[in-house]
Design brief:
Layout (H helix, E strand, L loop, with lengths): L16 H7 L5 E10 L5 E9 L4 E9 L6 H23 L1 E10 L1 H9 L6 H13 L2 E6 L5 H16 L11 E2 L6 E2 H4 L7 H6 L3 H17 L2 E6 L6 H16 L2 E6 L4 H16 L11 H19 L11 E5 L7 H7 L4 E5 L6 H4 L5 H12 L6 E4 L15 E3 L16 H17 L11 E5 L8 H17 L9 E6 L8 H12 L11 E5 L4 H9 L3 E4 L8 H8 L4 E4 L14 E4 L4 H13 L1 H11 L2 H7 L4 H15 L6 H5 L10 E2 L5 E2 L4 E2 L1 H4 L4
Parallel strand pairs: 1-4, 4-5, 8-9, 8-10, 10-11, 11-12, 12-13, 13-22, 14-15, 14-17, 15-16, 17-18, 18-19
Antiparallel strand pairs: 1-2, 2-3, 6-7, 20-21
Helix pairs in contact: 2-4, 8-23, 9-23, 10-14, 15-18, 16-20
Family: Belongs to the glycosyltransferase group 1 family. Glycosyltransferase 4 subfamily.
Organism: Coemansia spiralis
Keywords: Carbohydrate metabolism, Glucose metabolism, Glycosyltransferase, Transferase
Length: 692
Amino acid sequence: MAHLSHRKFSILEAGSPRYVLSRKKAIGKSIYLGVAVSYECEGQIEWACSSYDGTEFESHEDTFVTDPSSTGPEQLEKLNNIIIQTVRDFATSHNYRIQGVCIGCDEKTAKIVAADPALKCPIRSMCTRFWFDLDAAPCTYTLRGLSLTEEAASAARKVYDWFTPQFPGSIPRIAVDPETNEVLVDMDGHCHMLDLEHFEQTTDKPTWDKLLQLSEQCKQRKLKIIFFNSTPQGGGVALMRHATIRLMRLLGVDCRWFVAKPNPDVFVITKRKFHNVFQGVTQDEQYRLLQEDKDLWVEWCEQNFANYWGQGKGVVDTADVIIMDDPQVSAIIPHIRKLNPTARIIYRSHIEIRGDLAGIQGSMQYDLWDFLWSGFISKTDLFISHPVAGFIPPRVPHAKVALMPAATDELDGLNKKMSASDLEYYRRVFNRCAEDQGSPGISGDRPYVIQIARFDPAKGIPDVIEAYRAFREQLTARGLEEDQQPQLVLCGHGSIDDPDGTVVYDEIIQLLNQPEYRPHANDICVVRLPASDQLLCAVLRGSFCALQLSHREGFEVKVTESLAKYKPVIAYRSGGIPLQIEDGKTGILVERGNTRGVADALTRLYTDTAYYQDFINELRTKEQDSKRQQFFTPFQSVNWLYLATELAYKGNDEAVATNQPAVADIEGTYMGNGEVRQWNAKYVREYWQNSA
């Protein structure tokens, strides 16, 4: 090991001219950090950091002298504290923003780490500290070099390559295996943000114990679970799958996720003629599914199956349990049945399907559902719906229906806790996006109301603007000056399988130019944000309260995320939202279309401090924290693992699989042990929670 020269990062003194100048910058300069550590010298640990901005390096080297009286974990904690504090001081004094960190390791350590995703080790411990303490996405990589400084510089270049061009607050680029279109979550494990202990700390003991028990069953039986959907990024399904795969990897469960190769022409069909029609947001006959639409969609699904998931690909042919997320790729179901007859198939319906319209013969919804159900979805073993009766379409026997709400992750970028400096940084980032799009930004000294949602015709964005107009009129009537009145923030991510985003965004901009809204347009921030989870987290955490005025909704995770941040939510009684909000306790429910009622609720929340504080106090109670458990990743993962262990044939009597009846011939679901279960549209949790 080359001798360390003990170079130090240049840390500016507070009050120095350069320090003061750096404070005036609108947004901190993005840098990327490499870290290398050597444990070779007895009695001391040598370490080096290198920062890189794409042009210049700045390095730091130091030695940590170990204390024989301290335990290994205590030594590691001290070392991590020193490294984190050194990096924080360096970044803060220069107004740098560390976007990503690569922590290098040797080949031996890399093999050990790769073999056991749940293994606790110094590298992983340091990774999680960077994630929680500095809001920097942490990665690991095998390094070689003549010195620690060279290794640290190599790590900095590597993480720079992984991240750029990216947006502040992003995780590294989403990697997809070109051979199978498998989503390699967290760069196939190179990005390590969390350990199992972090999930355990946020989960009640009965649920956690059940999770460990079921994961052990899966591992002992060597079960293989796979998910299918249309896109790896954008929308609630993708967010849930990233979190699910992350936790399953830590648990050691063989769980994988595959997506289709994008086709914009097909996405127009699946969004406007599937999704929008099912939700009833359009009755225009131009969106009725035509035979040419069916042919194109089926051909696309079959091509994806043949090219990526079919015979010999090691995907469908080796799977035990397969979950289909929504109808986008459901045309592959008959091919799954043919290739792997013993695979158990679950269809997971995430969107609101207007059961009333789907029951009217001759309606667009009826014809669409008849096509998808009779040809494809009816061949699955179990239908999972959001827990709303009206979401279960006709012809789906309730004996084959189980219920499960959507979930979010308490520890990922969308929900993790943030420091005041993080919140201010992301406010400035948001304002830069707003400026680029010609929108007002968020003021640093005024409260704001927020709705986070895709720019989608079902999200009720025109209602939000009208309710805000009425709210502002009420505040003016009460004598509040304009600079004392809240702003409105409308923002969200896009998705590659959603062609409506630009159309709806343009419609909202035009709406703000109407005479009735023009007086308040300078206080309404309308921004389409790039893929940055922490950016959404920060602007939601900085809000006064949240709105969710969706006209049609499945189970809105943004409501869960708002409540988890102790933000009262005013929402329409749409879809699954009333199951998420306790009216008058954690939020306020208003009938769909009643914008005046929304304005009244906003006015009271804003002007009656005691009333507002009652909501905050309730949201912070242990009872509410406990109720929200079912909407987070560990609880959701228990649901999936329970279904996998109950449905899979592997590990049961082989005769059970060979005697499997046709799906259409049984009333209920043929279980892995040969019994027939009638689910009767009950929550999945009801089947495992009692034993937990």
